[in-house]
Amino acid sequence: MQSPWPEAGTPLDQVATPMPVIDEDRLAANIARAQAYIDQHGKAFRPHIKTHKIVAVAKAQQEAGAVGINCQKISEATVFADAGFTDILITYNILGAAKLARLRALHERVPHLSVVADSAVTVDGLAGAFDAARPLTVLVECDTGGKRCGVQTPEAAAQLAERIAAAPALNFGGILTYPAPGGAEAVEAFITGTMALLAARGIDCPVRSSGGSPDLYKAHLVPSATEHRAGTYVYNDRSMVRAGECSRDDLAMHVLATVVSRPAEGRAVLDAGSKALTSDLLGFSDFGEIEGFEGARIVSLSEEHAVVDIAACRDTFPPVGGLVKIVPNHTCVVSNLFDRMVFHRDGIVTRVEDVAARGTVW
Amino acid sequence: MQSPWPEAGTPLDQVATPMPVIDEDRLAANIARAQAYIDQHGKAFRPHIKTHKIVAVAKAQQEAGAVGINCQKISEATVFADAGFTDILITYNILGAAKLARLRALHERVPHLSVVADSAVTVDGLAGAFDAARPLTVLVECDTGGKRCGVQTPEAAAQLAERIAAAPALNFGGILTYPAPGGAEAVEAFITGTMALLAARGIDCPVRSSGGSPDLYKAHLVPSATEHRAGTYVYNDRSMVRAGECSRDDLAMHVLATVVSRPAEGRAVLDAGSKALTSDLLGFSDFGEIEGFEGARIVSLSEEHAVVDIAACRDTFPPVGGLVKIVPNHTCVVSNLFDRMVFHRDGIVTRVEDVAARGTVW
């Protein structure tokens, strides 16, 4: 049975739908632009590979000058360790004997592996799984307004750092945060406050890692951060355009879809449902943007259908069998739905890559 | 590197998280209950395999008495054809040369293959891809209030049925709808209206297919329907409990998760994010239900984190490292995130099955 994945050289309008496709030139420009900006401000750039989960894209980010990569889970990091990446930061609390054993095995073969922790329980678990012969580097995760994980105050950060530093099996690597959008001031204050407390305790704080694509081009507003982590910027999406982080010309991912029905006045149905776009709204009231048809709104998603209100453009919207290009609200989660990813230039497929870390949630 | 998939015999509390797990006994009971009800009302039952996408589960549904299976896309159907299923209904408008060629190839090897159509464009495309030597069976999809695909009136249904019947390469199989929840009257009226018009034109309407899990146990309210299709009932989820379609004891899927942080008063973070649960709200205001902790609310999801408001149960909620069981808002989309599915009985893993049709959206 014919594979859905197109051969190189296939025109985009012959690619099976629904299909996310990546513009090679926009991807390369996004990689270069972010690296240049971070270089200009004297920081290290550490891309979060979750947005693409593709070895070749991470290699391109590395070749552009990334200091290493950011992964979210051990299983995700394992894929990239298998591909030879030597500097991996896992921004997650690793807990439980099985996961600690997997982390230990990873640490044997990744020259520069770091993790984060935001509690004594997590730190003690890590300390028990490693040894002084080759300590594990641990950063303290700080909540600087994101209200997710992280210690709540510089005092708590310094305390946890001391606990890490006191463990022979661990090495205190620094502090890290995933900020609230627009939270540069809070990040800077937290970092400087924590560093002062650490200095008073005689503890170095070599890495101060901030992150997020919404604030990628505001990273210079956190002068005390030594590195910036970002994932979404590599493809961009509707939420990044709204955030002002990129222009529409920087949108590298589109989801191609076919109009499968025009069943009633003002309604069209596409073959891209939540299993191609996800239901991520990210603050939007509709499920994606159909390029070139302003006023068309994806008002509901089933698993395999998008219902589009085309009242504002019924005369121009494509007929049954026609093709559309959707800008997803959120690109990272689209990558995680597909086993492979199609790349293109000038309307022609260039390559298809394995989304090697698809589904790696453990 | 250790696989995340547990061996049979593993206790559930040692399964890597986040992980959806299926209770064998509840699954078997759901399959039996639905089949018995439909049998009792003299209809055919056609499970939609999208909810599990697993060959062994479809076989169990078949063994219980299902007349065949329902798939949403050709690629999904192909997986089940490869596994030997002989009666497959694809409830989708199939368009374009490539998809028609794939449908043709499928038709060569599936003894009873049917599709739907809701437009002349779709019907004509199908007619051009098949031939009179072995016609393709096509049902007319009708919009009976679901406001997705489907012809809008019995008159339009009869007209499209005539077009199908007039094509030597096609066989008119009947009519089909995916109703609005609670829409039994509208379905019955549409069916009887269409059948009367078809009878007047001398056209048989052998299959009248209705569907949906929310109305599975109201299928008898559509006496003119010959078959009922349903997917979600096999596992059930939070939306099915809310619909009154099942009790909490019929919930076969839970997503196991670990508490990875208790960073602030009233907040906990789990390792199950949108990449384990999806962001599907289905009308709920939170992202899933944590069993046994009434008042705990999953207020936000990142890709790999769930932020839980535990203000109402902070003294009983598990500490960092503790395990919880989440009832997903929507089970079907969780299946589509995982390559394999873990089954259990009495707290012990029984088997792990391939989610063979994961990601088959074309």
Task: Characterize the structure shown.
By secondary structure, chain A is of the alpha/beta class. Chain A is built from ten helices and 17 strands. In chain A, 28% of the residues lie in helices and 25% in strands. In chain A, strands 1, 10, 11, 12, 13, 14, 15, 16 and 17 form a nine-stranded mixed sheet that branches. The radius of gyration of chain A is 22 Å and the shape is elongated. The first copy, chain A, starts with 18 loop residues before the first strand and ends in an 8-residue tail after the last strand. The interface between A and B is large, with 71 and 71 residues.
Entry summary:
The structure is a homodimer of 362-residue chains. Helices cover 28% and strands 25% of the residues of chain A.
Topology:
The structure is a homodimer of 362-residue chains.
Chain A: E1 19-23, H1 24-40, E2 44-47, H2 55-64, E3 69-71, H3 74-82, E4 87-90, H4 97-109, E5 112-117, H5 120-129, E6 136-142, H6 154-166, E7 170-177, H7 184-200, E8 207-211, E9 227-230, H8 238-242, E10 253-264, E11 267-270, H9 274-277, E12 289-290, E13 297-301, E14 306-309, E15 323-327, H10 331-335, E16 340-345, E17 348-354
Parallel strand pairs in A: 1-16, 2-9, 3-4, 4-5, 5-6, 6-7, 7-8, 8-9
Antiparallel strand pairs in A: 1-10, 10-11, 10-15, 11-14, 12-15, 13-14, 16-17
Helix pairs in contact in A: 3-4, 6-7
